[in-house]
Amino acid sequence: MIKHQIKKNSYFDSVSLMILSRELKKLPGVSEALVGMGTELNLEIAHNVGLFTEELTGIGANDFFVSVQAETEAQATAAIAEAEVLLNKKNESKAALYFPPTLDKAISLDAKLNMAVISVPGAHAADLAQSCIDRNIHVMLFSDNVTVEEERTLKENAAAKGLMVMGPDCGTAIVNHVPLAFANVVRAGAIGVCAASGTGAQEVSSLIDQLGEGVSQLLGTGGRDLKKEIGGIMMKQALAAMAEDEATRVILLVSKPPAKEIAAQILAQAKDIGKPCVVCFLGGDRADAEALGLTAAISLEDAAHKAVALLCGETPADFTGFAMGEDAANALAAREAAQMAQGQRYVRGFYTGGTLCDESMKLLLPSLGHIYSNIPLQAADKLADAKGGESREHTFLDFGDDEFTVGRPHPMIDPSLRAERVRREANDPACAVLLCDCVIGYGSHPDPAADLAEAIAAAKATASAAGRHLACICAVCGTEGDPQSLTRTQKTLESAGAIVMPSNAQAARLALLITEKIG
Asked: CB 3.0 to 4.6 Å from 507: which of 89, 322, 461, 475, for a disulfide?
């Protein structure tokens, strides 16, 4: 039974509606649900999931609709009624707030405003960002689908006025101790972070907090900033800001390897600042940084440890081990491996954080040889159909990549698609280890561990029923101060049978240990 509700000329924001879809699918008897505006994309999704009927013909982008497939008409009607209730709650919570309809109106309310967070469709994002630059307003550009040419122009114009343009597709920043977008509750401190990576920035800042220190500023640049086409304009701008900031005593750079000529410029600038600097260019050549007297890191965790060591006046050393100790880690890996059935041998890594997925692959690839992925390190390891197809040998997926987010919120907001894949993977007799991140903090799902824990428990039960053992390893990116709480999140995952490691790097290393001990 498929039932629809259509409201002409009624607008709701897309992220709220996609989250509503997920909530309706949890209701009794409901097998599929879609709540959205009548855009071409949403109507295509309705077709793809089997919800499209003639009733949806003719609705447009300004029309709101709810479509539900349920076992009975009564259950479908109840689901549509629940959608109305949830929407009304959202509207009530916003009723006391005022949202200025234009940039000029916002500025008229407070002339001191000097930072704008922009999250609009990519086609309009560059124009709005330029309007902010024209008004001497710094920009955090959350929007994606901004062209490289637009990005470079925006950043050149901003740099000429001493302004920051963080982004496009910038997901994380902490400015004057205020978290923006996806960010964690990190104590104030003296380590300044310049990052061309959202979850990379979250991982290092959270680990710094866990080590007892804090962050002065965390400035994101957008993932393309250090490419040759952009030239590292905002990384240079961020470095200059850290140099002038009296509260910043140690600087930490985070990125995938930049274009070689851009890396040389960034490292030379960092050397000349005169403050201790840790360079974490994941997968890059550490010798380039060390030749200039900078401290090179081999993982995000290593970078956090080295930044704290420098702040405390200590000599930094590579952190490549386990917080529990090597002997305990080897014993744990041996116990897990001993329970595996014949034929179990592969690691499957499913991530909501793209940089965390990338880091794990870089740590494991030298030993595993091939890791198939939607964001592969080797062109030959590209999966043809990461979303709908099956895993191939060692497979790692970034669920935040475009292939998975068309028509859906980012997996840190809605982790249900990753959870479905975890359950599905348990049916593969060759799967030995499931490796997952869990990112908490502002912007993330209110309780991402609950969804993942349910999936892990179900996957382990499926494997057990087939006479197999599934090792499930997780790392939580976050702090005790986060709304979801680091400890509470870890305990939720542990209660489902997951092995929870203190960092993404340690989780990856444990997965490798287990595979090495499988007979």
From this structure: 475
Beta-carbon contacts of 131 under 8 Å, excluding residues fewer than 6 positions away, are 103
Using DSSP's 3-state secondary structure scheme, residue 180 falls into strand
Examine residue 319 and state whether it is found in any structural domain, yes or no. Answer: no
How far lies 379's CA from each of 73, 190, 369, 383, 467, in Å? 49, 40, 13, 10, 36
Expressed as residue numbers, the domain containing 63 is 2-95
Say what the pTM is: 0.88
**Burial status of residue 379 (CB atoms within 10 A of its CB: 0-12, 13-18, 19 or more):** exposed
Query: In the chain, how many domains are there?
Result: 3
Q: At what angle do helices 260-273 and 233-244 cross, to 10 degrees?
A: 10
Mark whether 356 and 477 lie in a shared domain: yes
Say whether 253 sits in a helix, a strand or coil: strand
CA dist 378 to 35, 279, 369, 381, 384, Å? 38, 24, 10, 5, 14
Residue 280, token pair as written in the block: 């974490």
Task: Answer whether 200's CB lies under 8 Å from 170's CB.
Answer: no
One domain for residues 126 and 61: no
- Which runs of E-coded beta strand occur in 290-430? 295-296, 346-351, 372-373, 395-398
Among 311, 336, 358, the domain-final residue is 311
Same domain? For 347 and 450 the reply is: yes
For residues 150 and 170, membership in a common domain is answered with: yes
Spatial CA neighbour of 161 closest among 127, 197, 130: 130
C-beta of residue 507 within 8 angstroms of C-beta of residue 301: no
Alpha-carbon span 306 to 303, nearest angstrom: 5
What is the domain-level CATH number for residue 132?
3.40.50.261
**Which residue, among 417, 425, 411, has the nearest Cα to 459 in the 3D structure?**
425
Distance between CA atoms of residues 408 and 19, nearest Å: 8
Tell me the pLDDT of the chain (519 aa) as tens digits.
999 999 998 777 666 676 788 788 889 999 999 888 888 878 888 887 899 999 999 898 888 899 999 999 999 999 999 988 888 776 555 444 566 778 888 888 888 899 999 988 788 899 999 999 999 999 999 988 899 999 999 999 999 999 999 999 898 999 999 999 999 999 999 999 999 999 999 999 999 999 999 999 999 999 999 999 999 999 999 999 999 999 999 999 999 889 999 999 999 999 999 999 999 999 999 999 999 999 999 999 999 999 999 999 999 999 999 999 999 999 999 999 999 999 999 999 999 999 999 999 999 999 999 999 999 999 999 999 999 899 999 999 999 988 888 767 789 988 989 999 999 999 999 999 999 999 999 999 999 999 999 999 999 999 999 999 999 999 999 999 999 999 999 999 999 999 999 999 999 999 999 999 996
